[in-house]
Amino acid sequence: MHTGGVYEFRVHNDKLNILASRYEGFINYLNQVFDNCPNSYFLNGPRSSKLKFKLNDLSMHQTTGHEMNDLCRIGLNVNKDRYKTSHSKVQVFMLENDDKTVASEIPIWIKKDELENYNFLFDSNEPLTGHIDILRIEDEKIWIWDYKPNAFDEKYASTQIFFYAIMLSKRTNIPLENFRCGYFDDSYAFMFKPELKNLIKDKLL
Fold first, then answer.
1. How far apart are CA 148 and CA 11, in angstroms?
2. Are 91 and 100 in contact (CB under 8 A)?
3. Splitting the chain (205 residues) into consecutive groups of 10 residues, what average pLDDT does each group show?
4. Tens digits of per-residue pLDDT, 82-129?
């Protein structure tokens, strides 16, 4: 139980071990987080999903008809009577049926001494935390995806997911260049490459 409710971490080990074989730190993290998650971090402090500022110079790609849109639409329909929440309907369908999805609702965090300008960015000394909706492996990149039921109207989703990438990079010791980010619903998908140069609040520009 973390702030915001119960998060059911799920990992598909067969797909993970095949698709992410080059990322030992990633595999180890996903296997160990079930037993070694610092749950107290998630009870206080900033949440990535609650960040309300934009970042510098994100090169966003917007599209329709992406495979994530199709998977989302099918998952919502197939699991309409199986799960109560739209997130569970989409996440479980993808984990069970998409050959690139390896995990869902994975907890991540970063502490103030692990990121430059931490206090300025989050106005807090407590760890930043979050839960990644969907992790996929595609073209040997680790894709961090967040399901947003009204993706087109989202203002700060890219900020949320950018910090997911920062946190997962720190937890796995995998360079940020190996990650890609996106958010989606059944109609739209938005994608970008996270880079450290983006790590500036709009108000600094």
1. 21
2. no
3. 69 97 97 94 95 90 98 97 95 97 98 93 95 97 98 97 98 98 98 90 46
4. 999 999 999 999 999 999 999 999 999 999 999 988 998 999 999 999
CA 32 to chain CA centroid, nearest Å: 18
- Cβ-contact 92, 80 below 8 angstroms: no
Total residues found in the chain within this entry: 205
Q: What is the pTM of this model?
A: 0.94
pLDDT at position 138? 96
Q: What kind and span of H or E run contains 78? A: helix 67-78
DSSP class of residue 68?
H
Residue 108 in 3-state DSSP?
A: strand
Question: At 166, which helix (H) or strand (E)?
Answer: helix 157-172
Distance CA 110, CA 129 (A): 7
Planar angle of CA 8, 10, 14, nearest 5 degrees = 170
Rounded to whole angstroms, the Cα distance separating 169 from 196 reads: 12
Alpha helices in the chain (DSSP H): 13-19, 24-36, 67-78, 86-97, 118-122, 157-172
Cβ contacts of residue 120 below 8 Å, gap of 6+?
201
The candidate with the shortest Cα–Cα distance to 3, out of 128, 97, 148, 113, is: 128
DSSP letter assigned to residue 44: S
